[in-house]
Every structure is written in structure tokens, then in C-alpha cells.
Amino acid sequence: MEDVSSLLLEMDLFKGFDPGELADSFAAMETREYPAGSLIFAPGEASCERLYILRKGRVGMYRLTANGKRLITRQIKPDGIFGVRGLLGRAMQRNFAEAVENSTVCIISRDHFLAYLERRPELMLRVLKIVCDRLRLLEERLVETVYNPVNIRLVYFLLSNADPVSGLVENVSHEEIGSRIGAVRQTVTETLGNLRKQSLILVEPKKIRIIDRRGLEKVIQGTES
To answer: What is the pTM of this model?
Structure first.
């Protein structure tokens, strides 16, 4: 396994801390492999009371609605952290975490993290910032879902998730997009088809390419005028 301190120092959460102290405090950090489709943790389980670092692959965070439908709350990319709220106790973690692709995940136990937090209380401010930033994003998504039609929500999704250089949104199905923006798969497919007919995007299996970013931005601006 790679050096613990080098791994943690790559993250904003631990930047500037002492490498030796990090190595000693988190020497017991685990690394696990999760095949695509496997569950990493679920609400109420002891496994949700840990801090997770995604080293490779992709992880989806989601909740279940009253009728059993998935509502994706976040997509985790490599070097992203998740499970922060579970550090406050399993009752606080209401998300499921599932490996969308074959994934390598590093795991820090709740006890080890809280023990380090007692020695370095300034770390709490960074944890609170992460939680607040995520709450802000969820609030923005809620506003988009309540007040914007599906085509606007879809355009927001494409612009927010596309690679800034290639314009590609990769490895995401129409069903996954629907779970992110609060729409059924058929509606997502039809809306993508309409954007394609307007020569704003190209649609391929598990891949969407933005070919007219300015045109997509005008779709949004048309609702704000």
C-alpha cells in the first residue's frame, strides 16, 4: 500500500499537517476493493461510521424514497472523500454508498479519526466546511428541481459534469442522470434527443459530448430573462 501520509496530504482535509503524525495516527487505515454494483455501506450499519477515500473507480451516494426509488445525492470521483456525516454516528448517515465501477477505497475508522480530531481540533473547521459545501450543493439542486423544468435541470447537469476540455460526460446512463435530476429515464432520453436535434450535443452509449456549450447556456438563460 502507498505511504499513508502521502495519500492523506494529497487531500485538502489534511493539507499542512505533520506527515509523521498522520502516518502514526492512521497506520491502521484499510484498503479494500469493491466490484461494480457492490454496496460499501448502508444506513444504520456500523460500516457507515467510517471515513472513506476513493482511490480508483467511481462511487454513487443515494437515498431511497418512500416508494423504493433511488435518489442519487452525489457521485464520488477518485481522491474524493465520503462518509463524513457518519463520523457523527450511524443515525446521521442516511445514504447508501455503492461502487458504480470497480473501485479501490481506503477506510479510516471512526475511533482513529476522532482521536486525531482531539489532538488537532482545527481539523473540525475543515470537516464543517465540507459538510456545509455539500449542503449548499444539495440546496441548489433542490431549487433547480422544484423551480426548473426537466430540460433546464438536464442542461445544468451536463454543464456541471462535462470535462472542461473534451466536453464529455462519460460513464453515466440515462437512468443515473434521471436519478440525479429527479426525472424518469424515458424523459431524460427524450430530452437528450431534443438537445441532439438542436445540434447542442452528441449522444452515444454511456457518453454525451457537448458540442455547443454556448447554446446550452442560452437554454438556461432563456429561463432567467
So the answer is: 0.67
